[in-house]
Amino acid sequence: MSHMFLLACLFAFQSTARGESGGADIARALDQTLPQITISDQELPDALDALGRQAAITMTLDENSADLLPWGRRTRLKTLTVQNKSLREVLPQILGVLGMVYEIRENDLLVVAGEPLKRINRRATWDDLKLLRELNETEFSVENMEKFRIQYRITAKLDAPGLLNAQLLKAGRGSIAQNLETATGALGWVWFPNGDHIAIRTSEAQIANRLSRRITVRYANEPLTKIIVDLGDRAETFISFDPGLLLRLPPRVAQGTTLNLERTSIRQALELLVAETGIKYEIRRTGIHISASDTAAGAALGDSASAGEPARRAASSYVGKISIPSGDGTYSYEFLLRADELPDDILEYRRQLLEAYIQKIRADMAPVEGDNSPGGAGE
């Protein structure tokens, strides 16, 4: 694939326009029909500057998103000229070929990576962008879907292809990319282009992957929640907290924590907070949940734990039950099992079983055909 892009290779790509209520002037400028829109053979930031001048708006390229492009900020756009079009009509075509979208802000228009591009979580290759363009250009059908190879990074205990195919058929009309978004979302999965194939993994695995991002930052005597929320923003991941969490932590920790990070992964930053503050975190489908560690929770229980039992065990949750029938079969013994009483391999097997049944439940709960359709060509 050529690294220079002609208008002929551009394709329609749905753009985001969050924040239009605060950027009405920007929105009006986007809708203005211009006699001629021209881009010279320029690197992306220069091309955006030129487009912005033609529409009398400021266009800004998000730095983190630029790092995901094959040549970063130096990725170039080929010369193109279109006439009697609005920037709103032209921008999706220009940005879509690079997997980018735009957001309307109060005083400018911000160009950012689209979700499939973000999920790669590395610098994209030209093959990644080529596949993404094809998925957006191709209308979904069973026959068209068979032209693309899929790699499932899902537990082998699930019939992942069967679950996905069922959801794709329920997703309605649209491009393959649109239907993949709807179908994987219903299953708690995500998708992204990966060279010559589509990769699919769980939302939890995607969050874990984002936590591998390395950051350099200093937090000096900051509130603990502020640090955690900032780490979540850097991982583009929602953070939730247990009610009353801060009441379980020493005030000096909750109100003033210092953390210095130099090329440290976000996961390592969270692990440092776990070690130093008495919190723990859990990766869930919807984001990262923060709660008090077993030690902190156990200490909060105080005298409720038996005198000889460690506080950690008093706080550990029940995760299973063993039933043993009596010798004559007239009754049975039942023993509740705590998480800290089971070895890691048994806990992992339990997790896989739960995931398999959760996916089956999600499949049963998914909307029927015709509901929540993303729409598509011809509608």
Please tell me what the overall shape is. globular
Which structural class should the secondary elements be placed in?
alpha+beta
**How many beta-strand runs?**
17
- Relative helix content: 25-40%
Q: How are the strands of the largest sheet arranged?
A: 3-7-6
Largest sheet: 3 strands, mixed
Amount of beta strand:
25-35%
Compute the CA-based radius of gyration: 25 Å
- Count every helix, treating DSSP H or I runs of 4 or more residues as helices: 16
Poorly predicted ranges: 1-21, 300-315, 372-379
Distance between the termini: 31 Å
Q: Give the overall average pLDDT.
A: 82
Structure, described:
The chain is an alpha+beta fold and 379 residues long. The chain has 16 helices and 17 strands. It has a three-stranded mixed β-sheet. It has a three-stranded mixed β-sheet with strand order 8-10-9. The longest helix is centred in the last third of the chain and has 22 residues. The N terminus and C terminus are likely disordered. It is globular, with a radius of gyration of 25 Å. Helix 8 packs across helix 9. Helix content is 40%, strand content 25%.
